[in-house]
Amino acid sequence: MTNATENKIVTPEQRRAKAAWKVAQTLKDEKACDDFFKLCKKTASRILNSGLMPALAFLTSKKDDGQNASVLNAFKDQLSSNGLFVFVIGNQNTLLDRLVQNADGTMLRRAQSEALSYLEWLARFAEGRAIELKPKEGGVE
C-alpha cells in the first residue's frame, strides 16, 4: 500500500503557498508582519507599473533594510527552487544579475508572472500572521 501523500499532485499554487507559509512563519511580531505585508503590496505595484527588473533593482538597492532583503531572498529562493530560473554561470550571485545577463523575454515574463503570484501568497500569509500575533484584548488567549 502506498502513502496517499506520495500520489498527491502538487500544483504551482500549492508550491507557492508552501514556500510563502515558511517565510511568514519567520515573521516574529505583528509589526514585522504588517511591514512585510505592505512591502509585498508595494513590490507588486512596482512590478505592475515598471516591470520585474526595476522592482528587483529597487529591492537590491535597499537590501540593507531587513524587510527588503527578506522579500528579495524569498523571490530568489522561489524563482530558483522551481527549476525554471536556475543559472550556473560565473560568479553571478544575485537574482538581478542572473536575469539581466541570461533571461530572454519569455523567461522574464514567466519570472514576472511567478513573482506576482508568489507575492499574493506572501502578502496573504503575512497579513494572517499579523492577526495571529496580535495581542488579545483583555490578555485572554
Please write out the topology:
Layout: H1 12-25, H2 30-50, H3 52-61, H4 66-81, H5 95-102, H6 105-133
Please explain how this structure is put together.
This protein has 141 residues and is mainly α. The chain has a single domain (12-134), classed as Orthogonal Bundle (Peroxidase, domain 1). Helices cover 70% and strands 0% of the residues. It has six helices and no strands. It has helices spanning 12-25, 30-50, 52-61, 66-81, 95-102, 105-133. α2 (30-50) crosses α3 (52-61), α2 (30-50) packs across α4 and α2 (30-50) runs antiparallel to α6. The longest helix is centred in the C-terminal third of the chain and has 29 residues, at 105-133. The protein is globular and about 50 Å long. Mean pLDDT is 83; it is low at 87-92.
- Percentage beta strand: under 5%
Radius of gyration: 17 Å
The oligomeric status of these chains comes to: single chain
Number of strands: 0
What series of H and E elements makes up the topology? HHHHHH
End-to-end CA span: 42 Å
- Under CATH at level 1, the class stands as Mainly Alpha
Overall pLDDT confidence = 83
Helix and strand content put the structural class at mainly alpha
- CATH topology description: Peroxidase, domain 1
Our count of domains comes out at 1
Short description:
By secondary structure, this protein is an all-alpha fold.
Structural features:
Peroxidase, domain 1; single chain; 141 residues; 6 helices; mainly alpha; 0% strand
